[in-house]
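> tool_call: predict_assembly(chains=four)
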Amino acid sequence: MTTRPFHHGNLRAVLLEQAEGMLRTVGSDGLSLRELARQAGVSHGAPRSHFIDRQALLDALAEQGFDRLTRAVRSAVDGAESARVGFDRVAQAYVDFAIEDAALMELMFAAKTGARPGAVQEAAGRLFGALDDVMGPSGPTMADGARDTFKLLFGATMQGIAALVASGRIARAQGDVLVTAAMAMLLDSELGREVVTRH
Amino acid sequence: MTTRPFHHGNLRAVLLEQAEGMLRTVGSDGLSLRELARQAGVSHGAPRSHFIDRQALLDALAEQGFDRLTRAVRSAVDGAESARVGFDRVAQAYVDFAIEDAALMELMFAAKTGARPGAVQEAAGRLFGALDDVMGPSGPTMADGARDTFKLLFGATMQGIAALVASGRIARAQGDVLVTAAMAMLLDSELGREVVTRH
DNA sequence: ACCTGAACACCGTTCAAGT
DNA sequence: ACCTGAACACCGTTCAAGT
C-alpha cells in the first residue's frame, strides 16, 4: 500500500480537474486552493509546487478552457458539408460550451487587471486559428483584415449571447433564436459573403 | 467639529462610490468590505447596516451600473437625426462604458451562481427599454419578437466586442473597427431593415 | 436606526524542514 | 522535485453592546 494514493507526479492535473468542477458549482469567487488541496488529500501548501499563486491556477484553467473549446470547434467543423453548416454547428458548440461552463468562460474572457501570461494568450490564439478552418480558403481579392474582422465578430457575438443566457437574462430557447438570427446576419452580410467561401 | 465627518446617513452611497473606484483598480476579486470601511473611516462592521453581505454590495454595484449605462444610452440617443446615427452613437457609448468599467460590466453580466435579486434584473430591464427609443415606433407588420431579437443581438454583440478589448485580446482601435462592421451588419440585415424605422 | 469592537472560521502566501 | 505543517496577515460574517 502507499500513503500517496494516486497523486504521484500528477497532482497538477488532479487539481485542475477538480477545480474545473468546483468552478461549475461555486463559481470562481468560491474556488479555494485550500479546499482543493483538502479534496485531493494533500496538505494546503502542496498546490504551491504546481501553481505559484491562486491567479496562476485560474490562468491555467483559462488556458485549458481555450484548448477544450478549440477541440469542440474542430469537432463541430469535421464532416460539415458546407461552410454554412459548419458555422451553424460551430456556433451551437460555442454557445453550448459557454453556457455549460459559464464561470470558466468568464475566466477566459475576463478583463485583465494585471498582465496575462503568454500561455493563455497563445491558447486563445489557437481557438482563433481553428475558426479559419471553418471559413475555407482565403480568396485572392480579399481585403486585408476582413477575415479577422469576421472571425472576431463571430466570436464576440456568440460570447455575448451566451453571457445573456448564463446570467439568466434570457431563456436558453431565446438564446437559440439569437444564434440563428446572428448566423443569418453574419453569413448574409456583405462581409460574410466576401469572406466565407465554399469548400 | 464632529467625529463622524461626512458619512451621516449616507454611508451607503459613500461605500458604493468608493467601491466603484476600487473595482477599476483592483477588480471585483480584490474588492474588500473591510478595506472599504477603512477608507470610509468606519468600523469593519459598519457596512453590514447597509449591505447584508459582500454579494449584496456587488449586486448594488451591478444595479447602479445598469442605471448609469442606461443614462449614457439615453444621452447618446438625444439629438440623433436618424435611427442609424442614433445606433452608431449608442454603440460607441456602450463599448466605451464596457471598456472604461470592464470589471463593473462583468459584474452586470456575470453568470448567476445563486439567484439574482429583482432590483438588478429590473435595472437590466430599464437598459433594455432604453434601446426601444433608438429604434423608433414599431411598424404595423412587424413580426412578434423581432424587435426584441434585434435589441438583444445588438447588446450581445457590443458586450462581446468590449470583452475582447477589455481582456487585452484585441486593441482598442480594432474594437472600433468591429463596432463599425457590426453596426453595418445589423442595420443592413433583413431583420434590421424590418425593425429599425426612421424617426 | 446605525455604528462599534470582539470573536470565529476561513483564506492565500511564505518558508524552513522533511523525503 | 515534491510535499508537510507552522506562522502570518488578511478576510467575511456574526452578534452583543453602545448611542
